[in-house]
Design goal:
Shape: rod-shaped
Number of helices: 4
Oligomer: single chain
Helix content: over 70%
Structural class: alpha+beta
Strand order of the largest sheet: 2-1-3-4
Largest sheet: 4 strands, mixed
Length: 185
């Protein structure tokens, strides 16, 4: 039995050694698989973090840009209100001209206007007698709807010198320059 025992022992030792080798090989392979899975998870984590960082930066930029646009719009609205007030004050100032300044403006304008015929003058209520004493050769009439300034009618041409229309016309020309002076930044 000793030979049989030796042979059995050798087979068992060889089988044990083989089992140990298979076990160690399986252990190494499992470590490689685990390490690969850990690396994959780490790479995915990095990509997710990178994507989230990029998206958050984009969102932040959009929010900042939107806020800047709102601020700019509010500033423009405020500037427009100031401009409206400036031109309203100009109209009020012209509407408040005393009789002497009004007549002086009227005469100056009449001197510059090249009329084809005799023409007629339309003035606000209360100015007819004052104007007739100065402009004796022109028909002068009053209009209740005319609040300020005057209108000259010359044959088929009407010259509108109401203060509202004069200020509105000048506004188109000067608004940029006035804004530049008012809002120097």
């Amino acid at each position: 039995m000793s030979k049989l025992e030796n042979l059995t022992k050798k087979i068992l030792d060889d089988a044990g050694a083989q089992a140990e080798a298979v076990k160690e090989n399986a252990h190494k392979k499992s470590e490689v698989v685990i390490n690969n899975k850990i690396k994959e998870a780490h790479d995915r984590k990095e990509k997710i973090i990178e994507k989230a960082t990029t998206e958050s930066e984009m969102m932040k930029d959009r929010v900042v840009s939107s806020a800047e646009l709102k601020v700019r719009d509010e500033k423009l609205k405020a500037k427009q209100k100031v401009m409206d007030k400036v031109f309203l004050m100009a109209k009020e100032s012209l509407n408040g001209l005393d009789d002497q300044d009004y007549i002086s403006f009227l005469k100056s304008t009449m001197d510059k206007t090249q009329m084809k015929g005799k023409g007629s003058l339309l003035v606000p209520r209360g100015y007819k007698e004052k104007i007739e004493s100065v402009l004796k050769d022109m028909e002068v009439s009053e209009d209740d709807d005319l609040e300020s300034g005057f209108i000259i009618r010359d044959e088929d041409v009407i010259y509108n010198y109401t203060f509202d229309s004069l200020v509105d016309e000048i506004r188109e020309e000067l608004e940029g320059e006035i804004a530049k002076n008012l809002f120097q930044e």
